Amino acid sequence: EPPPFLGSWRRVYVAVLLYLALIIAACYGFTRAFE
Amino acid sequence: MTPLDWVVLFATLAVIVGYGLYRSRGSNTVDRFLLAGKTMPWYAMALSIMATQASAVTFISTTGQAYVDGMRFVQFYFGLPIAMVILCATVVPVFHRAKVFTAYEYLEQRFDSKTRALASVIFLCQRGLSAGLTLYAPAIVLSVILGWPERATIFLMGVTVITYTTLGGVKAVTWSDVQQMCIIFVGLVIALATLIHLMPPSVSLADAMYLAGAAGRLNAVTTDFDWNDQFTLWSGLIGGTFLFLSYFGCDQSQVQRYLTGKSIAQSRLSLIFNAVAKIPMQFFILFIGAMVFVFHLFVQPPMLFEQSQLERLQSMNAYRPVAERYRQAFESRRQAARELIDAHRARSAAAEQHRLDAFRAAQREMDRTRDQATRLVESTGGEPGFTDTNYIFLSFVTKYLPVGLVGLIIAVIFAATMSASAGEINSLATVTMVDLYRRYFHRSGTDHHYLMASRWATVFWGAYAIAFAGWGRTLGSLIVAVNKVGSLFYGSLLGVFVLAFFFRRVGGTAAFVGMLAGEAAIFWAYFTRISFLWYNVIGCAVVIVTALAVAHALGHGTAET
């Protein structure tokens, strides 16, 4: 079954990995902002 | 606990169990009892996966860890989304198409019966060793904080879990997990909102975050590479990926959650949900711990959060000077915190730096005094390596949260304990029945016979967990050590599944020898200073290299070796 969004599972996986990169960048920025 | 708290606690538990049993009607075949007839929607599996992973220790220990060490622990989860993507692309479709009840059943299809048996026994050892601790750890904290009898608490939680797991099977476990996860989310949000409300009127949320950062409690990312540091960006991304590949791909307590999906797509979505939601959830829990720290900048915390040890020290002569030093350290830190906020608001860089140095010096004095109290516990008959981290959050909850909310947070602890325990017991029973009993001891029974065998296996593992947890106090720190030993088996399990999926030329004998070599390598690593997050990387690599070497030696890489 295709995923209900983004059209293909490959795109879903890429989106998850981009999301992880965004999360890590946000956590890094959060750390630097308050250290 | 007031009468209202008791009502909230028991009403919550009754609704969770009642709804789980209601949704599990018709679990009267082996397929329905163990795999819910493959009818589960993605959101139920997703919350069940999350609830199975989040035991009570996750909440009481993680918040305490943020209080004493900051938010570095969030890096532990950075490998989880990577692992979920790999599992969605490989493990989920393979397991679904193989129509297996357990992950280890697939190993016989791919390798041979001895590899399946070894993997099953490794899982039973590993998960069986931790089943008691899942019930024991929260019970001991509740007994110290609330004065509840330890064994009665274990018995209450254990019997509740056995009841709905035995009657309703995996469907009851999953739908109860959904309820429990909702209770956990609601409880945590209310806890943080109340915590912010309890801050002094002059301290805004921005001030609180500034103070937490100044004390090093908002250190979410550490970019240094250090083999011996448990929580860095690199150990999380590399070691964490391997750990979560092992946990979600090779541990039946998690595999069974997504094997119940009505399609490959539904199972994948359940894992993708966890890939997206898990890091923010852990960040949120750690942030609560950091805010408890800020709250205690203005309200004096106990010198030790474990009340029984503090009371024991109070009767000693050595206690008074340490307590006085602690009181003075707290007062000077509180003053330094107020002055630091004022300097920060005045936007005077020189004054702010001066106040920041004073605040950090006061914090170091607080830490030294607490260390002195900890050493006093150890030197007067307390446990070596004494720590009170697990008592910090519940100590705050019971002393400062309003009536009714205490019952809700205790219900969160119960819900987390029961969801993790139910997943363990359910999966232990499944592997016992499918991979051992039906495979080796009784191969031609009826479906009803195997259904009853599954139920009795559930009762057995539940009773075992209760008994093991009930003896926890007698076992002392041994029960924690046993749980650590249980975590040493993941690397070799991951290695054999990597062989199964990616090395078609490796056969059963080579995989079997590889698993044994991988296990030996992990036990070697255990006695070095290497952080535990790297064990799975080492174990997995040794399994693959050994199996390839054996396959080459035995038959120059044919599929029969």
What does this protein structure show overall?
The complex is a heterodimer of chains A (35) and B (561). Chain A is mostly helical and 35 residues long. Chain A has one domain. Helices cover 74% and strands 0% of the residues of chain A. Chain A has one helix at 9-34. Chain A is rod-shaped. The N and C termini of chain A lie far apart (46 Å). In chain A, 23% of the residues are buried. The model of chain A has no long low-confidence stretch (mean pLDDT 90). With 561 residues, chain B is mainly alpha-helical. Chain B folds into two domains: 3-296 and 400-473, Sodium/glucose cotransporter, CATH 1.20.1730.10; 307-387. Chain B is 78% helix and 0% strand. Chain B is built from 24 helices and no strands. The longest helix of chain B has 49 residues, at 150-198. Chain B is globular and about 75 Å long. The termini of chain B are far apart. The interface between A and B is medium-sized, with 20 and 32 residues.
